[in-house]
């Protein structure tokens, strides 16, 4: 990086992003292949990946990998808060704020040709939505997935139809998650004309001053005034 | 319809076609009084074994004879009961499995089972956990069946249920009830003094994760002192790592997490750049093939490689076996790799063990006998060499004792080209090997546990630090 830049993602975040991305891709591929096992394309994929047992093994391996990555992230947050006495609630943090709703409304207006582009801080509202979709989604997927993984144990204290319910929630949530990640997140974060073909920031961890000025003007201004948070 | 169903269908059709021509030894019985007369297809048809109705129909057909006390077989002039106890079968896990699903070769004429129940067509075999390799030659029923009489079949080398009890009376083996596997007495079927199964006299712990150093093992703790060795090993690694982090990392000398972040940043950049090839080159030439040592002295390189490369190969073979077993537990490859008497496994283990032993002997000669000026025999070296030597020697002696005890046929045992000749020598001694085996095993296991626990502390620490400093130094250049 020759142009002046600022650290945006730590090494840990970058590693976890790659792990979650690969794990999520594997989960989607094997999961939908298992669910639509009757179709020709699913049978072709199943043939490549060792049939239904191979798919099931891979699906669970990817699930453990992805869930472990999210848990490591949460453990880091706990360490950051408790041991390093960091702040999680600042304007440059990941927690949703009332400002995000205002930003959303103004952003919609701007896209329709009205008003100015909102003064985005370090993380925009859609970046926060991408983040929380994973943190919340992984838990519903994880819980329903566990019910499907160990139905005998769960039906020991749950009615049997909870297994069917878990399957439906697991499927619907999977469709939503894949739609959010592969359609919205991939396009908005990586395929925008400004960053095409990929936003390399999540890989090398830095964002140039130039981009902060144009894409996160609120953050840039805060940094100039000495109150924004860098990394 | 599964494979079993297909086989059963073939058998049933064959039976149907052959029935008039063959004198079956199962009498076609008339219908009980008061019931409609039988038709051929009452018996000669194949129910759907994957439906509950089919399973019940199949069980009912078999139990028509096997449910009666009069159902017997004659062995050496004595009647052996063939009656299946419905009560114990009804409480077993196989209550809703058709007879033909396991006894897949009985629907034929003559009505006789050659292969016995086929457990492995549904259940994968045990890997290294909870039972180790020697049990790969033990039939499932030898432990899982209720009959306590087991014997070693000399022809197949397999430990099986005995057909006769201790009084030489033929016994029926029709109890389908489950054996309680938590029963401590279970292992004592074989592991007692004077047993007929070719087992050591003691129940020994299974292999733990530390045994991966040289063997295929499982990711379990094993016995508590394996766990202790693992704990000491891990604590040593962490302590070593923390000591390493005491200095400045990548110019960072702040708090620990800042150093880790700085080191991680460096590692990240080195990985995702052309410098990765530099690192891989170091790993290949300097770490794997020890190029620097070779430049210094061919003799030292030779001695070091005998120990290090052979250990690495044993580790690799063990992990490979584990991986194959995890992916394809029922495959022929997994069963072959798990079997210590398999030709390839036996040759590989004996060859690699021998190489390590030669390496250790050369090192001992160099340090204690030849004593050239540049070699300093440090006590740290001596501990490592003694533990390694003890581990290897006791390993070979234990292997030879195992060959004697389990009476491995010579044409199979000969692949263990070190342990088999040793076993012939040892067999001539007047020693109770089934009784001594436990001692040999504990010497081997304890020296291995001590060796593993010692790795992060003594001289052997260099196996972690040397590659690390090679890579880091290379990068600093």
3D shape of chain A: elongated
What can be said about the biggest beta sheet of chain B?
A: 2 strands, antiparallel
Shape of chain B: elongated
The biggest beta sheet of chain A reads: 2 strands, antiparallel
Mean pLDDT of chain A, to the nearest integer, reads 91
Specify the oligomeric state.
heterodimer
The H/E string of chain B reads HHEEHHHEEHHHHHHHHHHHH
Sheet/helix structural class of chain B: mainly alpha
Mean pLDDT score of chain B: 86
Contiguous low-pLDDT stretches of chain A (5 residues minimum) are none
- Structural class determined from secondary elements of chain A: mainly alpha
Number of strands of chain A: 2
- Strand count of chain B: 4
Helix content of chain A: 55-70%
N/C terminus separation of chain A: 16 Å
Q: Topology as H/E string of chain A?
A: EHHHHHHHHEHH
User: Helix count of chain B, per DSSP?
Assistant: 17
| Side-by-side strand order of the widest sheet of chain B | 1-2
Number of domain units of chain B: 3
Biggest interface, chains and residue tallies: A-B, 12 and 8 residues
